[in-house]
Design goal:
The structure is a single chain. The chain has about 160 residues and is α+β, with helices and mostly antiparallel strands. The protein has a single domain (about 30-160), classed as 2-Layer Sandwich (Alpha-Beta Plaits). It is about 30% helix and about 20% strand. It contains four helices and five strands, in the order E-H-E-E-H-E-H-H-E. The protein has a five-stranded antiparallel beta sheet, with helices on both faces. Helix 1 (about 45-60) runs antiparallel to helix 2 (about 90-105). The termini are far apart.
């Protein structure tokens, strides 16, 4: 119970759409930022799970017409930046397939929450901001001092 008669601050509106339009997942050259979460109680940072996620991402992007740009595996979520290739690219189909493949490789069938969040990069500058956000996620969470120290992140634009 609040200590004063002041009205409580309203909660932020959390009902914004978290899906791009269907055609946005297949538009050649588009850069898509995707976030997805671990199922409750699952930690991604055990070596066999992190390795399964990394290998599933790397092995399945080209098959789905995508180019892997950056990723960061956090204890309970994953951030990925992909570019849709020139033909037959499908970011939405890829994330679903990659999640199934990572679960199979890790031996943890209930590895992921069902959904994911996504955003398009609007221009080249926005791509840089999205990649910086992905790579600096462990720094913001105080898991390391600089993104280069985090063993579960990578970017083609910032090779180690």
């Amino acid at each position: 119970m609040p200590d004063s008669d002041e009205p409580a601050e309203p909660l932020p509106d959390r009902h914004h759409p978290h899906r791009l339009s269907p055609g946005a997942y297949t538009r050649p050259g588009a850069v898509v930022f995707i976030s997805t979460r671990a199922r409750r109680g699952v930690l991604f940072l055990t070596p066999h799970i992190a390795d399964a996620i990394t290998s599933a991402m790397r092995d399945t992007t080209a098959r789905h017409g995508l180019i892997l740009g950056a990723y960061c595996i956090m204890p309970d979520h994953l951030h990925v930046v992909v570019t849709i290739g020139e033909s037959n690219g499908d970011a939405a189909g890829w994330i679903q397939f990659m999640k199934r493949e990572a679960a199979k490789r890790s031996g943890v069938p209930a590895l992921w929450q069902r959904s994911f969040w996504d955003r398009h990069a609007r221009d080249y500058e926005d791509v840089g901001k999205k990649v910086a956000y992905v790579l600096n996620n462990p720094v913001r969470h105080k898991l390391c001092e600089s993104w280069e120290e985090w063993p579960y992140s990578w970017s083609k634009w910032r090779e180690r």
